[in-house]
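seq:
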Amino acid sequence: MDMDMGIGQAVPDRALARRWLATAVAEARAGLAEGGIPIGAALYGADGTLLGRGHNRRVQDGDPSTHAETSAFRAAGRQRSYRGTTMVTTLSPCWYCSGLVRQFGISRLVVGEAATFHGGHDWLAEHGVRVVVLDDAKCTALMRDFITRSPELWNEDIGAE
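struct:
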């Protein structure tokens, strides 16, 4: 079931949100194929243009700050403003990535799933970001399979011990 929350600008329609999610899923699969954590993201402009895409590269780069959302954000390059943009991610964003969305005024967030990790999307919605949680079964299955196969890496990524 899709969830739409928040008071910010309107989100793209569900069909468009799911098309955009496909970009993030492709990134998540690329990260997994590289031996990393399968989380992908994409940043779309107000006009629907893909500005940047990326995946979690913590393992590949040995850099704990290279989360999927930050990778997509960096790939987008400098923008005059992030108002009206949409961050699309396969998994509810952690506090670090939620802070990025809020810090730069990204208007909307599309989340593939929040069942395996309930990050900061509620907080973002409370602060005016328009949030849609798609409850995508493919995203959930991808993360559940990864968590089962690599619990130590998953626990490292989310900060559990």
